[in-house]
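tokens incoming
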């Protein structure tokens, strides 16, 4: 912390240098491990904790989002990195989640040695693979992943009682991807105004929201887990 974020060190030290007292009726518990739930410093402190681990990896492609890491390179580099992740991660209280790990390769000679190092990992073709929920294949694979998302969201909306209409897949000439997903959500319903349009006059805007809400679509493929999980 002092080396990587010295400006924040005094504040973090004042927050976590000593245990916090948690009160439950007449009992007092000392919270002495981890950050407080909901603390916005949590993700930053986690990244600082694994910074040295990530810096020791040799693969040319080395990308992390919190506990979700992706490495790519030669077979020798990847096997070396797997050993670092498993050894150094254990010292930090982190363990490779093999059931959620993926080996993305079309070459069995490359995939097999990596899969033997992490039994339980799933081998995927690049055309069907995603990185942090985003497809990394060609246009056909991108369309397939988006359609799967639409089916999932449609099923979830139907399961919720059709409170949210399914998103529509449209084409926009300025979109960076072949397609864009635009949701159409109903206006909020409150207890005092159970009807979607409580006012006698129609909404002056053609859409109940002048700026339609955006929709983030992604999936979490966490590959590390802590001892608490």
């Amino acid at each position: 912390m002092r080396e990587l974020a010295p400006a924040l060190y005094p504040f973090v030290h004042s927050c976590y240098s000593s245990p916090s007292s948690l009160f439950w009726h007449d009992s007092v518990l000392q919270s002495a491990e981890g950050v407080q739930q909901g603390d916005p410093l949590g993700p930053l402190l986690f990244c600082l904790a694994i910074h040295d681990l990530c810096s020791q990896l040799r693969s040319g492609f080395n990308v992390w989002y919190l506990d979700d890491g992706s490495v790519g390179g030669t077979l020798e580099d990847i096997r070396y990195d797997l050993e670092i992740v498993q050894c150094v991660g254990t010292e930090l209280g982190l363990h490779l989640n093999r059931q959620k790990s993926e080996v993305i390769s079309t070459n069995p000679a490359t995939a097999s040695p990596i899969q033997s190092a992490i039994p339980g990992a799933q081998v995927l073709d690049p055309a069907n693979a995603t990185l942090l929920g985003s497809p990394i294949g060609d246009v056909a694979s991108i369309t397939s992943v988006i359609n799967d998302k639409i089916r999932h969201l449609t099923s979830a909306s139907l399961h919720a009682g059709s409170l949210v209409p399914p998103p529509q897949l449209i084409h926009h000439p300025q979109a960076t991807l072949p397609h864009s997903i635009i949701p159409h959500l109903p206006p909020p319903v409150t207890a005092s105004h159970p009807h979607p349009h409580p006012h006698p006059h129609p909404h002056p805007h053609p859409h109940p929201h002048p700026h339609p809400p955006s929709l983030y679509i992604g999936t979490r493929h966490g590959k590390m887990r802590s001892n608490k999980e």
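note: Confidence is low (pLDDT under 50) at residues 177-186, 195-229.
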